[in-house]
Amino acid sequence: MSRKMKLGVLTGGGDCPGLNAVIRAVVKTALHDYDMEVVGFFDGYEGLVENRYRQLKPADVSGILTLGGTILGTSNRADPFNFPVLQGDEYIYIDRSSQAVQNFERLGLDALIAIGGDGTMAASNGMAEKGLSIIGIPKTIDNDLFGTDQTFGFDSALTSAAEAIDKIHSTAQSHHRVMIVEVMGRYAGWLALASGIAGGGDIILIPELPYQIDVVCDKIKERNRKGKNFSIIVIGEGAKAEGGELVIKRKVANSPDQIRLGGISNQLAAQIEGITTLETRVTILGHLLRGGTPTAFDRILASRFGSEAVHLGYNGIFGNMVALQGNEIGKAPIKDVAGKIRKITPDSSLLKTAISLDTSLGVENINVSSDLELAK
Ligand code: F6P
Question: At the fourth CATH level, which superfamily is domain 159-290+345-374?
Fold first, then answer.
């Protein structure tokens, strides 16, 4: 009798709606299509390094499709190559990747499915180079992963942001105020641009296009002249004024990307009040965008990603991240996507749509192809 194949699965990095839907799809596909065994590691790569895991049976994934968060837990401080270990009052960082390989082998795993963002893909690339059979699944509300047209989690965050902007609209109108809504997204403006369009924002400010404060204020004043005595601004946390700096909320010492953004909208509000004398209020949506039940789109995308990852594993195709390519599920080599960020580029149709809708992007006479700071 041949041995059953055994898969490991982990969720790494910041959480997002749809993680449980992926875990469910992995377990169901593995059991239903191939009679495999599945173990889930706790808290991302931390669980693989520390050998903390549990077997996942059908009962463990029953009823979790619509649940936010991840039943496995996650961590954005668990890079096996730079693993934080508390020594006295301080963390030191050591390479524990060999321990992770040992645990993988001792458990008799045939493949590891790593669900995560750029940090998890970078760690997965390193682990693949050490010989682990890895399949990646792209997750993040930021939608900034290279190699896929969309990550799961983005649509849910976008829906939450658009709902929030809708609510801000009525109070903006009642009080004749300028209302700024700040959304996450790190160095990419996908969430700001998409939610700004969906919520009918008057001004959308994205990290890829440093804004000119006078242009922002002129748009607000022009609206007032036309009798629209309120304005909605949607801004990505990584946006900055022309010649200005990123607003850093904090630094997380033991995280692959230590910088946590947030708060640019407070700076912008002060500038707008100073120049226009109009009352301005700020709402920072922050982690709220990472919570809640996944949208139907994300449930489907997460399910497709999870099933495809298992099919790849069964067929012995490793070292790839499953990806949305157009409307189809394809794959991209992890080595080609690790360490890269997908930003808005001049040919992004979303950007052109915003411009056609007379939305201000905070830049005068925008020339999409030359003004945009291209992805580095
Ligand atoms: O990458 C997802 C994300 O939510 C970003 O949008 C945000 O900048 C960051 O994570 C926040 O991280 P943390 O959970 O460490 O505050």
Answer: Phosphofructokinase domain (3.40.50.460)
Range list of H helices, the chain: 19-34, 45-50, 97-106, 118-129, 154-175, 190-198, 213-225, 264-276, 296-314, 334-337, 349-356, 368-371
Per the CB < 8 A criterion, the answer to whether 335 and 302 are in contact is no
Max CA pair span of the chain: 80
Per domain, the residue ranges of the chain are 6-152+294-337, 159-290+345-374
Q: How far is the CA of 14 from the centre of ligand 1 (A)?
A: 6
Q: Kindly state if the Cβ of 140 falls inside 6 Å of ligand 1.
A: yes
The answer, yes or no, to whether any atom of ligand 1 lies below 6 A from the CB of 117, is yes
- Domain 6-152+294-337: state its class: alpha beta
Span 39-51, pLDDT tens digits: 999 999 999 999 9
The verdict on whether 142 is a catalytic residue reads: yes
For position 1, what pLDDT does the model report?
59
In the numeric block, which tokens belong to residue 376?
């580095």
Instruction: Report d(CA 374, CA 376) in Å as an integer.
Output: 6
pTM score: 0.96
> 160, 130 in Cβ contact below 8 A?
no
